[in-house]
Amino acid sequence: MLYSKVTPEQKRIRFRELLAAGTIAQFPGAFNPLSARLIEEKGFAGVYISGAVLANDLGLPDIGLTTLTEVATRAGQIARMTDLPAIVDADTGFGEPMNVARTVQEIENAGLAGLHIEDQFNPKRCGHLDGKNVVDLETATKRIHAAADARRDPNFLIMARTDIRAVDGLEAAQDRARALVEAGADAIFPEAMKDLSEFQAIREAVDVPILANMTEFGKSDLFTVDQLQGVGVNMVIYPVTLLRSAMGAAERTLESIRAEGTQEAQVGSMLTRTRLYDLVDYEGYNRFDSGVFNFRIPGE
Fold first, then answer.
1. Cα angle 285, 291, 295; round to 5
2. What whole-number distance in Å separates Cα of residue 210 and Cα of residue 174?
3. What's the average model confidence in pLDDT over 3-17?
4. How do residues 210-222 score in pLDDT, each as one tens digit?
5. Is 91 noted as a catalytic residue in this protein?
6. Which residue of the set 40, 91, 119, 198 is catalytic?
7. Separation of alpha carbons 238 and 215, rounded Å
């Protein structure tokens, strides 16, 4: 009801424990607050909040157009709906090192368990598109130094994402990962790895947790959790999967209404009224006000 029963501080401790457990944690991407509750109900370890999804939900491309305020607000709305730890994509930190420091504290205030900062130029590109550019090593490490120095909760996780593999190759990605850890990164997100051996190479380069991005239509094959755990990956995200699934269903339903004059053919694949009311916990609110849930749900 209303908010998670677990405090942000407790979620951050839980996130640290997950990454240290020696197994792999799955974090599907939530595209709105209600989907975060669904992720929790289905037994996942945590929730991921994608910068691409936040931008796309506003009708924008993923090229750094969203603001810190927009990201922190939406991430907080999503995080409050679940007892699971949630982490958010903070792009390049929304500016220079001082802006990065503010980003960390705003995201902390929003109740997140951690964030990741990347080493691309602004305007940035989706990590699985061609034509990316990365900043020099000094700029990349300054961002991470600023992020690590700014946090107030030592359990708030600072993850560094590097896109350098697509620009300068795998060895450069290994070197960049080492430097980012030295700068204060608690974990590494190596973007757009081409195969399992490349994840293995990053694993050999650093001794902090590493993340794998299993996004559809990208540079990487869609490896299983067992395959990823086998090369030492600690966390896997599915950033845009639920948004793509939901928008695909919405498109099919609209096409059906347009073609047939009714949604009848699509009703069987919809979330029922009962299930929707269950997810938003109508009955729980009745404990506070019997006038809220004083009706019967029609048969479905």
1. 90
2. 12
3. 96
4. 999 999 987 789 9
5. yes
6. 91
7. 6
For residues 93 and 43, is the Cβ–Cβ distance under 8 A? no
> What pTM value is reported for the model?
0.93
Identify whether 83 is a catalytic site residue: no
pLDDT number for residue 129: 57
116 is catalytic: yes
Is the separation of the CB atoms in 118 and 91 below 8 Å? yes
Catalytic annotation, pick one of 12, 37, 40, 48? 48
Closest by alpha carbon to 134, among 158, 171, 161?
161
Q: Is residue 131 pLDDT above 80, yes or no? A: no
The b-or-e profile of 56-94 (16+ CB within 10 A means b, else e) is bbeeeebebebebeebbebbbbbbbbbebbbbbbbbbbb
Indicate whether 229 pLDDT > 90.
yes
238 among known catalytic residues: no
What tokens were used for 203?
């694993």
> For this structure, is 226 an active site residue?
no
> Catalytic: 182?
no
Write down the catalytic residue from 12, 106, 125, 126: 126
